[in-house]
Specification:
Blueprint (H helix, E strand, L loop, with lengths): L1 H16 L6 E6 L3 H16 L3 E2 L8 E6 L4 H13 L1 H6 L4 E6 L5 H10 L5 E3 L7 H11 L3 E3 L20 E5 L1 E2 L10 H5 L3 E2 L2 H13 L4 E5 L16 H9 L6 E5 L8 H9 L6 E3 L7 H6 L6 H14 L4 E8 L6 H14 L3 E6 L16 H24 L5 E9 L7 E5 L4 E4 L9 E10 L2 E6 L2
Parallel strand pairs: 1-2, 1-3, 3-4, 4-5, 5-6, 7-10, 10-11, 12-13, 13-14, 17-19
Antiparallel strand pairs: 8-9, 15-16, 15-18, 16-17, 18-19
Bound molecules: 5'-deoxyadenosine and iron/sulfur cluster (SF4).
5'-deoxyadenosine (5AD) binds next to β13.
């Protein structure tokens, strides 16, 4: 906790240093929900340091770019956006630009920024989030560039201020890092080893969110099913979930991500028993070929994966199941890929996040024999076409049903409509008043469209 005190001391020091200057800060986020959650803490710390938080980088006196490294494309975008801030610094020399997140937690990328992006004032790794106030303070004080890499720090900073993007929906990180080393994945190298937050801290945060009227709370971790391993049987993920379900309030709990090797039947039983847990399971399969799963170091096979899916459907017939699939992993043959298509037909996913394999330097798969780009693209197109077909059938089956949804606000794709999400995380568009935002309502599904359902409020 000493570290926390220091973070708060530096927030106070920054406030004093910048007093009367009316400074503002902007946080630009790439990547997954964990990054979004981290960015809410970054905004919280900057706000507590006296900055107002703005959405427009051109208006800010501090810009923090929170980056992703999972695929090459994400890195390219973060670098190009950072490049675009150079001219802002010319116009406003006192502007501070900082980069954090997974991309700069790799030593080679941190060096690249040092050399090629001289207008970046500071860089800090994922383990160093709570050090931001100190880094920013020192950057003003010493007028020197600062690079703070990850160094295996495992302490979890509790009690940091947060500015949440939404008033009715919240992320709650329950653990950080990953020990799995899937051969394609950079995450264990940039987010460090698995470490869990104490259950009482998580319970307190969820209790406060529920009391403040939050309607949907998503528990986050790279592999939530290995939550609490370091507590020696005191509290695992299933027990944590049961304890969270005892908290009073009209809210839904979600969680992600589950690794199929650790997802337990006990967890599925707890989901089936508790109305507070959304009946949605995100279970990344990555491939339908046992050979590919072995090469990916996933520690399960198609059969054990399907036994989880079958058990879920037996206990919760309406459960929505989503997944992640990688297309064109090194050595993937036409036969391996067809195994994936077969699995999709068997499971009939409610949603698939599909990714073309992107070699990440430093991971074992980057050194394996690569699938040519044209084959990867062709397979991806076939996968998407099949999923659209399967989804159309599935969506059709919802027509006529009444579903409980959480209203999210005006639709981003169709201004005239409101948008809501079902328990299974499916989007429903409907005509309604904006004042319904953040409320649970019932919608009757009248039509299915390729990427959403259409519904109407019941009289
Ligand atoms: N290339 C493509 N997709 C990847 N993922 C992780 N690493 C890579 C990579 N190198 C995908 C996996 C994971 C999701 C978050 O990103 O499917 O589940
Ligand atoms: Fe990456 Fe595998 Fe860890 Fe997920 S479980 S973060 S895919 S190494």
């Amino acid at each position: 906790m000493e570290e926390n005190k220091t973070a708060f001391d530096y927030m106070e020091a920054l406030k004093n240093m910048n007093s009367g200057l009316d400074y503002s800060a902007c946080v630009v986020t790439y990547g997954c929900q964990q990054n979004e959650a981290d960015s809410e803490k970054i905004a919280g710390m900057l706000h507590a340091s006296g900055y107002s938080i703005v959405k427009e980088p051109a208006l800010a006196d501090v810009i923090i770019v929170n980056t992703c490294a999972v695929r090459e494309h994400a890195e390219e975008r973060a670098l190009s956006i950072t490049g675009g801030y150079k001219h802002l610094k010319t116009a406003r020399p006192h502007l501070k630009i900082g980069i954090c997140g997974c991309m700069v937690s790799k030593a080679d990328m941190s060096d690249k920024i040092k050399k090629s992006y001289p207008y970046v004032d500071f860089v800090f790794g994922t383990e160093k989030l709570s050090h931001l106030p100190e880094i920013l303070y020192r950057s003003y004080e010493k007028k020197k560039r600062i690079f703070v890499p990850n160094d295996g720090e495992t302490q979890i900073a509790e009690g940091l201020p947060v500015i949440r993007e939404s008033t009715f929906r919240a992320w709650v990180s329950i653990m950080y890092g990953c020990n799995n080393f899937c051969t394609y994945c950079i995450v264990p190298y940039v987010r460090g080893r698995e470490r869990s937050r104490r259950p009482e801290m998580i319970i307190e945060e969820v209790r406060e969110l529920a009391a403040s009227g939050c309607k949907e709370i998503t528990l986050l971790g790279q592999n939530v099913n290995s939550y609490g391993k370091e507590f020696g049987g005191e509290c695992n993920f299933a027990t944590l979930l049961s304890r969270l379900c005892e908290i009073e309030g009209d809210f839904t709990l979600r969680f992600m991500t589950s690794h199929p090797k650790d997802a337990s039947f006990e967890l599925i039983d707890i989901m089936a028993k508790n109305d507070k847990i959304a009946k949605h399971f995100h279970l990344p399969v990555q491939s339908g070929s046992d050979r590919m799963l072995r090469e990916m170091n996933r520690h399960y096979n198609k059969e054990t994966y399907l036994s989880l899916v079958d058990y879920m459907r037996e206990k919760m017939p309406d459960i929505a199941i989503s997944t992640d699939i990688i297309v064109g992993f090194p050595g993937e043959t036409e036969e391996d890929f067809e195994d994936t298509l077969e699995l999709m037909k068997r499971v009939k996913y409610d949603m698939i996040f599909s990714f073309i394999y992107s070699p990440r330097t430093g991971t074992p798969a980057a050194k394996m024999e690569q699938v040519p780009d044209n084959i990867k693209t062709e397979r991806m197109n076939r996968l998407l076409a099949l999923q659209n077909e399967l989804l159309a059938e599935k969506n059709e089956a919802y027509v006529g049903k009444t579903m409980r949804v959480l209203v999210e606000g005006k639709s981003k794709t169709n201004e005239a409509k409101m948008s809501a999400r079902t328990e299974g995380n499916r989007i429903v568009l409907f005509d309604g008043d904006e004042s319904l935002t953040g409320k649970f309502i019932n919608l009757k599904i009248t039509k299915s469209a390729p990427f959403a359902l259409i519904g109407e409020t019941e009289a």
